[in-house]
Every structure is written in structure tokens, then in C-alpha cells.
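Here is one chain, start to finish.
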Amino acid sequence: MSTLHDQLTINGMQLRNRVVLPPLTTNCGSPDGQVTDGVVQFYEERAEDVGLVIVEAASVQADGRIVPGSLGLWEDGQVAGMTRLADTIKKSGAAAVLQINHAGARCFPSGGEMQGASPSGFLLRADVAPFSMSLKQIDAMVSDFAVAAARAAKAGFDGVEIHGAHIYLISQFLSPLTNQRDDRYGGDARGRATMALEVVKAVRERLGMNYPILFRLNVVEHVEGGQTLTDGLEVSRALAEAGVDALDVSLVTQGSWHEQDGKKILIPASAFSKEHPPGANIPFVAAVKEATGLPVIGVGKLGNTMARKSVKGSLMDLVAMGRQMIADPESAGKILAGKEREIIPCKECMACFASLRKGPVFCKVNRNLPWASNEV
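Its structure:
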């Protein structure tokens, strides 16, 4: 029977416990995707007690950033800053994994050839014109992921996580809502997973069999026309067969539709609101674990009680705490030490998500973020 204190090994990567800091967009990288002092401080404060830190999405191309302050690994000049960040995390005793991503048609509009790249030209931002990628463009993007992964390894990260969730580019290919192609990259769940599987293969070929590769996916999308649990499990099994070492299981919690200039735009959400009960994602994470046999990471309002029960009951292998670790960087240590009453709780107000439209992430509970003067 596992506990949060137990160690875990993922393809040679040693984790001292089962608590994970998930990828949290800070929007505090430099305009050219470089690691800043604020980014280093943010992760240093939160790596002290967790077993694994997954650093926020680093774009594989400049035109694929989620926000203006997204980190990047689209050029060699960004490796030195990433090395500093990886070293800082590992000095704390945590393992360091970097998430790599291209936002596709959900990208921040900064220009570039692949701004608005998508499987089928589905509109996701009013200020970004989507286009359907050609086969040549897909091949180039797959290569971009592999090259960025190699840079992450060179920077000293213990592993990489391929971002295939939250309706960014790879997720857009996986979802039946945004992928309506009639070539080998479309069709049923396996067909829509073709690009994701090609990225996994390219990264594996570049880094070898002994380098940990994680993959984050939506196991279900709670929006009409989105990916079902059956689809999500099919994709999970395909990823396991392709050699992914662990799955980071997320979901689209809901999707709202906005109309602008006569066009409907999907605004997907990946965080549970106050109305959702704690641990609402647990059954989906457990289903992926059972279907694949891989180590799985669960996320989504997993407070101390839910975290302990989930790991103890073998429903998941690793527990990620995101918003709570923004509010109180010492949350993981307090839970592991049995000092839950000392935790400063997240208010679930969603100010952190809303703030990203204006600048670095902001928290109403924690006014001591490295960039706390930039309030919203």
C-alpha cells in the first residue's frame, strides 16, 4: 500500500516522494523566452519538498507561446537559462522535468509562420487566424518538438513532458472537436493521435530509451463534441505502446462559447471551479492507470485527504498540487509533515488564471510572489 512519502522511479528518474508541482504558467519569462530571476525564485520556493517539479510549458517555436512571457527552447541561446533553472530545482532534491509545447491556434499573437497552426482551422482566439497544417508543416513541427527535447536534456532536465492537453496544438489534433481532417492525422481516436505518437517517436529517437518521457493529455473533454473517456483511454493505450514512461492526466473541465464578428470561439477551461467537488478527476486518472499500467499523475483540487486516499488506494501514483502551491509554496512540506492545519488554503477564486491576460500570475492569497508588485 503506497503513501505520499514513498519513493518512485520512472525510467531511472528517482522521485523522493509522490507529490508533484505541475506545470504552472507564470507569464514571467522574458519577451524572448528566456528564464528570468523571478522564474528561478518561483520554482526554488516550491521545489523544497516535492518529489517532482514539472516546469511550465516551454514553446518549441517563438510563434507557439501561450502568453507573452512563456519560456522557450526554440534556439540554443535559451539553454543556459534553462540549465540554471534545472540546477536550482535539483539542488533542492526534487527531480526536474520540462514541459514542451506549441499552442497552435491558441497561441499568443506575436507573428510567425506557424501562428494559428491547427489540424482543421478551428477558431480558438479572435486575434489569431487559424489554418490547417500541411503534411510538410506537421513533419517540421514534429522535428521542432524533438529538437527542443534535446535542448532540455542538454540543460540538465531529468525528463521532458510533451504537452498534449488543454486544447493546445497536439491536443487540437487529439480532439474530435478541433480535428476534422480526412487524412491519416484525422478520423478515429487512433488516427487523431498520429501526430502525438510521431512526436513521442521523434523525441525517443533523439534522446534514447533511457530518458524519461511524460505525456500530458485530456482524458476527457467536458464540452459538446469533445473527446470522450473512451477516446481518452484509447489514446492512453496508444501512448503506452509508443513508449511513454508516465501519463499526466488532465481534462477540459468545461468549455464556453463566445461570439465575435459573427464567429463562435471556444474558450476551454482546465481548472475545476468552486462548484466542482474535490477529487472530481480521480476516477478518470484511475481509469488511465488501469488501462495502461503506466505511472499516472493526477491533478485537480487534490487536498491532503484526497491526495493520501488516492495514492494509498492505488488510484494514482503521483499527486499534483497546482493552485494550492501558488497560494502556499510550503503546502507539500506541511502535508508530508502532517501539519495540514498550517496550510494557507487557496480560495479557488481563479485570480491566477485571470491575471495571465495582463501579466505575471497573481494570487489574492499569496502577495509574496517574486513579481508581487504587478498586481491585477
